[in-house]
Model the fold of this input.
Amino acid sequence: MANVRLEKINRIYNNVTAIEDISFEVPDGEFWVLLGPSGCGKSTILRTIAGLETATSGNLYINNRLVNEIPARQRDVAMVFQNYALYPHMSVAENLAFGLKMRQIEPQIIQERVHKVARSLSIDRLLNRKPKQLSGGQQQRVALGRAIVREPQVFLLDEPLSNLDAQLRDDTRAELKKLHQRLNITTVYVTHDQTEAMTLADKIVVLDQGKIQQIGDPQTVYAQPKNQMVATFLGNPPMNILPVTYGNSIFWIANQSFNCPLEIQEKINPKDRESFNLGIRPEHIELVTSNVNQQNLQLDSRKSNQALLSVEVDVIEPLGREILVRASLSVSDNSEFSQTVIQFLTPVEIRLKPGDRISIKLDLNHAIVFAPQTGETLYA
Done:
């Protein structure tokens, strides 16, 4: 096992910067996830660690050894690719043993390791089959086994679950977590799936446009995002972003208003007519049912950190145990505010239909305020 340290790594292709000033350290035995949208540079970072890409500048250390000039085969890392990359003419056992044979390990040791890993991944009954005789999930296990059997210092995984169906992806993700807990191998995992990142990672590195946006444990990154990109990328359904204007202790959004909590005012020190983006997650929005006294609720919301808004239902999406509602601000004109989408969840017993005008309550104790131009978090 080993730590992995990147110091100001840059990679430039034909005058185009793929990754810029990438610096972080994965401690020995931890599971780190590189998360971000397609094209953000996460796979380039992983391939640079593996030695399949060469950094334009910066230093890369594995187990405190500078490996910039060391070829991939000598870095003692194992990589699992998105497409599995199994040898089609070899059996499962031969695929598992291939890397060990290349290192001229004794045949008896190879056989012992192969059977041990095959049993741990529940593929011991498949050892004589060829890859074309396996399902996608079985092929993925073989690819994982081929990496594990080498007993590398570092385990690198490039979106290994993306080709699996939803149920198999969930099952394999759980198996991966148990596998890491058992083997305790330093792991760097690339994905654009925020559910994978949240459930697997000790730490998440959020990337966008080749730059690190935030590094932290999953709950911190989710609850205290450094900017609007991180906030909206993490969470399903994603965070709602509402354009608001401040004035005389009030936030205005189109022709509706609500009190700006005192702690937000003290933190961001807003000026009259200054604009902000207010972030609120769907789980912090509640439907106000018709049997609630609207006048009393309006008074209560003025006293507490709550906001009452009128919206129009656009789309209803049943999710089984709950319903996802997509609504827009209920305004009469065709301004930008009428296109502001608000998503929230309701119990299945509540019956709504497109076109309904409803009231929703926002819990501002969980609100996050962003600068509209830069996306920087001003209050969380």
